[in-house]
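Section 4.2 – Deliverable D4.2 (structural model, holo form)

The reporting period included a commitment to supply a predicted holo structure for the target in complex with iron/sulfur cluster. Inputs used:
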Amino acid sequence: MISRIQLSKRFISSSIIRLNSHSQPAVVLGKTSEFDSSKYHFNISTSSSINNKDIEDPIQLALNSSEPINNWTKDQIRQIYNTSLYDLIHQAQIQHRKHHNPSEIQLCTLLNIKEGGCSEDCKYCSQSSKNDTGLKASKLLQVDQVMLKARQAAANGSTRFCMGAAWRDMVGRKSNLKRIAEMISTINNELGMETCVTLGMLDSQQAKTLKDAGLTAYNHNIDTSREYYPNIISTRKFDERLQTIQNVNDAGIKVCTGGILGMGETSEDHVSFLYTLSNMPKHPESLPINKLVSIKGTRLDEELSQLPKDSERHLKFDQVLKTIATARLIMPKSIIRLAAGRYTMKEYEQFICFLAGANAIFTGERMLTTMCNGWDEDIEMLKKWGLVPMKSFSN
Ligand code: SF4
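Output (structure tokens):
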């Protein structure tokens, strides 16, 4: 086992700072009482002479590994999450620049293709029939209705088109699945956009049907930590979610999975949530981070309103940043997507999320049943900061 000092010397003597075309030299931070800047000056090396087993600092481990790591421990993730925010964002930015073009943000648009009346009891969801939000159930949209919205999204600069249906699963929905497959292939053929759908639980055969239609990604969120999950949903087990994700992966479809922050969980739940995601056999291609939009009439809205004002269970913005930055460090290749609730963030808050490693946004008219920042304001925002929309299929 080599010490950190030896490790630093090893970095220095190798003098190798490998930068890909998007990377920039690490900025040397000033010293604080807790921060040893010498640890980080040369941390971009991926020299094969460095054995991952020798690296004790999990941030160093994340930065020096040339391949994604799928056996993170909760202790390592907790240590990263609890790093001082200033330093954590800096390290996440270094990781981001190693694996992504830092000036690119993916624009995606989400359309609700079948609203309300869902038999699941997700406590936060306006579309659950177990919540009293007054939302009426609708039928699945027709292909031409969807194409109107997809064309509008493409014309406004979105390169990924996502479609959500409020269903528990696809059992007994053969004709609906066929229609959705047609939506996917029509969007592919006519617009060349990436496609993503979220339809609830999926078996292997259904996943294959979607793959054959040309689906890029399937969204199925784990929502929160395994430990906190039973407080939020009782009609679907956490492991059933993981099974759907495996079916999607096995079918050769990219996995989009993430969760919702601000449901009354703690920082330890964020660590555990990231633990599940980062220990998947293959890291999610897309990782949506939603910030709860609490909706009147949902049972969760009622519960959260009972919490004392100073409860640690109210989400703080620094926890959002810590979750994003930690995700960027431990799942370096994933696209981290700011999803629902972005419209509640100030523009500078979104900017810090990008600094922490987020590189995709939902943009358009609606975010399922909640508001969404529109294309014009988003394009304007990106332009202001020197960011550009990511092209389709560039990840
Ligand atoms: S499965 Fe989806 S649509 Fe149904 S209640 Fe849960 S979050 Fe809402």
